[in-house]
Design brief:
The complex is a heterodimer.
Chain A lengths: L3 E3 L3 E4 L5 E7 L5 E7 L6 E6 L6 E2 L7 E6 L2 E6 L8 E8 L9 E2 L3 E5 L1
Chain B lengths: L2 E3 L3 E5 L4 E8 L6 E6 L6 E6 L3 E5 L2 E6 L4 E6 L8 E8 L5 E3 L3 E6 L1
Parallel strand pairs in B: 2-11
Antiparallel strand pairs in B: 1-3, 3-8, 4-5, 4-9, 6-7, 7-8, 9-10, 9-11
Amino acid sequence: DVKVTQSSRYLVKRTGEKVFLECVQDMDHENMFWYRQDPGLGLRLIYFSYDVKMKEKGDIPEGYSVSREKKERFSLILESASTNQTSMYLCASRLGQDVTGELFFGEGSRLTVL
Amino acid sequence: GQNIDQPTEMTATEGAIVQINCTYQTSGFNGLFWYQQHAGEAPTFLSYNVLDGLEEKGRFSSFLSRSKGYSYLLLKELQMKDSASYLCAVIDSNYQLIWGAGTKLIIKP
Protein backbone atom coordinates (compact mmCIF):
# COMPACT_ATOMS: atom_id res chain seq x y z
CA ASP A 1 0.00 0.00 0.00
CA VAL A 2 1.45 3.32 -1.08
CA LYS A 3 2.11 5.83 1.59
CA VAL A 4 3.08 9.46 2.01
CA THR A 5 3.85 10.31 5.60
CA GLN A 6 4.07 13.79 7.04
CA SER A 7 5.96 13.98 10.28
CA SER A 8 3.71 16.33 12.22
CA ARG A 9 -0.07 16.49 12.05
CA TYR A 10 -0.35 19.59 14.22
CA LEU A 11 2.19 22.27 15.06
CA VAL A 12 1.96 25.53 16.96
CA LYS A 13 4.84 27.95 16.49
CA ARG A 14 5.59 31.55 17.33
CA THR A 15 6.25 34.32 14.84
CA GLY A 16 9.87 34.30 13.77
CA GLU A 17 10.53 30.66 14.59
CA LYS A 18 12.07 28.33 12.03
CA VAL A 19 9.74 25.51 11.08
CA PHE A 20 10.53 22.19 9.42
CA LEU A 21 7.84 20.07 7.83
CA GLU A 22 8.99 16.63 6.79
CA CYS A 23 7.48 14.34 4.18
CA VAL A 24 8.50 10.79 3.32
CA GLN A 25 7.14 8.56 0.56
CA ASP A 26 7.74 4.84 0.24
CA MET A 27 6.82 4.45 -3.44
CA ASP A 28 10.15 5.38 -5.05
CA HIS A 29 8.41 8.30 -6.74
CA GLU A 30 10.51 10.86 -8.57
CA ASN A 31 8.25 13.86 -8.11
CA MET A 32 7.32 15.43 -4.81
CA PHE A 33 5.24 18.52 -4.06
CA TRP A 34 4.32 20.85 -1.24
CA TYR A 35 0.92 22.54 -1.29
CA ARG A 36 -0.93 24.71 1.15
CA GLN A 37 -4.67 24.39 1.60
CA ASP A 38 -6.70 27.31 2.90
CA PRO A 39 -10.48 27.62 3.29
CA GLY A 40 -12.20 28.89 0.19
CA LEU A 41 -9.11 28.51 -1.97
CA GLY A 42 -7.85 25.74 -4.18
CA LEU A 43 -4.61 23.97 -3.37
CA ARG A 44 -1.68 26.26 -4.05
CA LEU A 45 1.70 24.87 -5.05
CA ILE A 46 4.62 26.12 -2.98
CA TYR A 47 7.56 24.09 -4.31
CA PHE A 48 8.13 20.86 -6.16
CA SER A 49 11.01 18.57 -6.96
CA TYR A 50 11.56 16.28 -9.92
CA ASP A 51 14.61 14.54 -8.53
CA VAL A 52 17.04 14.43 -5.67
CA LYS A 53 18.64 17.83 -5.01
CA MET A 54 16.37 19.45 -7.58
CA LYS A 55 13.74 22.01 -6.67
CA GLU A 56 11.42 24.29 -8.57
CA LYS A 57 9.33 27.20 -7.35
CA GLY A 58 5.61 26.84 -7.49
CA ASP A 59 3.00 29.59 -7.39
CA ILE A 60 3.67 30.87 -3.86
CA PRO A 61 7.28 30.17 -2.88
CA GLU A 62 7.89 33.39 -0.93
CA GLY A 63 8.78 32.74 2.67
CA TYR A 64 9.48 29.06 2.06
CA SER A 65 12.39 26.88 1.05
CA VAL A 66 12.73 23.15 0.47
CA SER A 67 15.28 20.40 0.67
CA ARG A 68 15.47 17.06 -1.09
CA GLU A 69 18.62 15.25 -0.09
CA LYS A 70 17.16 11.78 -0.56
CA LYS A 71 14.63 10.57 -3.09
CA GLU A 72 12.08 9.56 -0.49
CA ARG A 73 12.21 12.72 1.61
CA PHE A 74 11.08 16.27 0.81
CA SER A 75 11.22 18.92 3.50
CA LEU A 76 9.51 22.28 3.63
CA ILE A 77 11.21 25.01 5.64
CA LEU A 78 9.78 28.22 6.93
CA GLU A 79 12.85 30.28 7.78
CA SER A 80 10.94 32.79 9.89
CA ALA A 81 7.32 31.85 10.42
CA SER A 82 4.67 34.53 10.11
CA THR A 83 0.99 34.51 11.04
CA ASN A 84 -0.05 34.48 7.38
CA GLN A 85 1.63 31.09 7.05
CA THR A 86 -0.95 29.56 9.35
CA SER A 87 -2.41 26.89 7.09
CA MET A 88 -2.76 23.22 6.26
CA TYR A 89 0.29 21.94 4.39
CA LEU A 90 -0.07 18.94 2.12
CA CYS A 91 2.78 16.92 0.69
CA ALA A 92 2.23 14.84 -2.44
CA SER A 93 4.22 12.54 -4.67
CA ARG A 94 3.88 11.29 -8.22
CA LEU A 95 5.64 8.49 -10.03
CA GLY A 96 6.98 10.51 -12.96
CA GLN A 97 6.81 13.87 -14.69
CA ASP A 98 3.61 13.03 -16.57
CA VAL A 99 1.23 15.59 -15.14
CA THR A 100 -1.71 13.32 -15.93
CA GLY A 101 -0.44 10.88 -13.35
CA GLU A 102 -2.16 10.40 -10.02
CA LEU A 103 -0.94 12.40 -7.04
CA PHE A 104 -0.59 10.62 -3.70
CA PHE A 105 -1.05 12.92 -0.74
CA GLY A 106 -0.06 12.86 2.88
CA GLU A 107 -2.63 13.56 5.56
CA GLY A 108 -1.42 17.10 6.04
CA SER A 109 0.33 19.20 8.67
CA ARG A 110 -1.78 21.87 10.27
CA LEU A 111 0.47 24.76 11.27
CA THR A 112 -0.63 27.57 13.53
CA VAL A 113 1.68 30.56 13.87
CA LEU A 114 0.96 32.78 16.86
CA GLY B 1 -6.97 34.75 -15.16
CA GLN B 2 -7.56 31.09 -14.54
CA ASN B 3 -10.60 30.05 -12.62
CA ILE B 4 -12.28 26.88 -11.45
CA ASP B 5 -15.74 27.11 -9.91
CA GLN B 6 -17.39 24.53 -7.70
CA PRO B 7 -20.27 24.92 -5.27
CA THR B 8 -18.98 25.45 -1.76
CA GLU B 9 -21.31 22.99 -0.08
CA MET B 10 -24.03 20.53 -1.01
CA THR B 11 -26.37 18.36 1.03
CA ALA B 12 -27.89 15.08 -0.08
CA THR B 13 -29.73 12.14 1.42
CA GLU B 14 -28.37 8.67 1.98
CA GLY B 15 -29.32 6.40 -0.92
CA ALA B 16 -29.92 9.28 -3.32
CA ILE B 17 -27.92 10.62 -6.27
CA VAL B 18 -25.92 13.84 -6.26
CA GLN B 19 -24.14 15.73 -9.03
CA ILE B 20 -21.22 17.99 -8.18
CA ASN B 21 -20.42 20.49 -10.92
CA CYS B 22 -17.11 22.03 -11.88
CA THR B 23 -16.74 24.79 -14.46
CA TYR B 24 -13.37 26.04 -15.58
CA GLN B 25 -11.86 28.94 -17.49
CA THR B 26 -8.22 28.14 -18.05
CA SER B 27 -5.53 28.86 -20.60
CA GLY B 28 -5.91 25.62 -22.49
CA PHE B 29 -6.94 22.21 -21.27
CA ASN B 30 -5.05 18.95 -20.94
CA GLY B 31 -7.21 17.00 -18.57
CA LEU B 32 -9.33 17.18 -15.43
CA PHE B 33 -9.08 15.36 -12.12
CA TRP B 34 -11.48 14.69 -9.30
CA TYR B 35 -10.14 13.95 -5.83
CA GLN B 36 -11.99 13.06 -2.63
CA GLN B 37 -10.86 14.40 0.73
CA HIS B 38 -12.42 13.25 3.98
CA ALA B 39 -12.10 15.71 6.84
CA GLY B 40 -8.62 15.56 8.32
CA GLU B 41 -7.40 13.08 5.73
CA ALA B 42 -5.35 13.04 2.56
CA PRO B 43 -7.01 13.75 -0.79
CA THR B 44 -7.35 10.56 -2.83
CA PHE B 45 -7.70 10.17 -6.58
CA LEU B 46 -11.16 9.48 -8.00
CA SER B 47 -11.00 10.08 -11.73
CA TYR B 48 -9.21 11.64 -14.67
CA ASN B 49 -10.97 12.83 -17.85
CA VAL B 50 -9.34 14.17 -20.97
CA LEU B 51 -11.94 13.29 -23.62
CA ASP B 52 -15.58 14.33 -23.72
CA GLY B 53 -18.09 11.98 -22.26
CA LEU B 54 -18.98 9.98 -19.21
CA GLU B 55 -16.65 7.60 -17.43
CA GLU B 56 -18.17 5.26 -14.90
CA LYS B 57 -16.37 3.68 -12.00
CA GLY B 58 -18.71 1.84 -9.67
CA ARG B 59 -21.00 4.25 -7.86
CA PHE B 60 -19.00 7.23 -9.12
CA SER B 61 -19.06 8.67 -12.64
CA SER B 62 -17.29 11.68 -14.09
CA PHE B 63 -18.40 13.66 -17.12
CA LEU B 64 -16.51 16.14 -19.25
CA SER B 65 -17.52 18.64 -21.90
CA ARG B 66 -14.47 20.49 -23.19
CA SER B 67 -16.49 22.82 -25.40
CA LYS B 68 -18.49 23.99 -22.39
CA GLY B 69 -15.59 24.02 -19.93
CA TYR B 70 -17.64 21.81 -17.67
CA SER B 71 -17.37 18.63 -15.70
CA TYR B 72 -19.44 16.89 -13.10
CA LEU B 73 -18.98 14.10 -10.63
CA LEU B 74 -22.04 11.91 -10.18
CA LEU B 75 -22.37 9.87 -7.01
CA LYS B 76 -25.08 7.21 -6.89
CA GLU B 77 -26.55 5.25 -3.99
CA LEU B 78 -25.04 7.69 -1.55
CA GLN B 79 -23.57 6.32 1.64
CA MET B 80 -22.69 8.16 4.82
CA LYS B 81 -19.01 7.55 4.09
CA ASP B 82 -19.35 9.70 0.95
CA SER B 83 -19.48 12.76 3.20
CA ALA B 84 -16.28 14.51 2.15
CA SER B 85 -14.92 17.36 0.10
CA TYR B 86 -14.57 16.82 -3.63
CA LEU B 87 -11.78 18.67 -5.40
CA CYS B 88 -11.75 19.46 -9.11
CA ALA B 89 -8.40 20.20 -10.77
CA VAL B 90 -7.58 21.12 -14.38
CA ILE B 91 -4.31 20.76 -16.29
CA ASP B 92 -3.80 23.94 -18.30
CA SER B 93 -1.86 24.53 -21.52
CA ASN B 94 1.40 24.87 -19.57
CA TYR B 95 0.76 21.50 -17.92
CA GLN B 96 0.18 23.21 -14.60
CA LEU B 97 -2.46 21.85 -12.24
CA ILE B 98 -5.11 24.40 -11.27
CA TRP B 99 -7.29 23.46 -8.30
CA GLY B 100 -10.82 24.41 -7.40
CA ALA B 101 -11.67 25.25 -3.80
CA GLY B 102 -13.60 22.03 -3.39
CA THR B 103 -17.20 21.10 -2.66
CA LYS B 104 -18.11 19.89 0.81
CA LEU B 105 -20.74 17.18 0.50
CA ILE B 106 -22.90 16.46 3.52
CA ILE B 107 -24.91 13.24 3.53
CA LYS B 108 -27.95 13.07 5.79
CA PRO B 109 -29.66 9.85 6.88
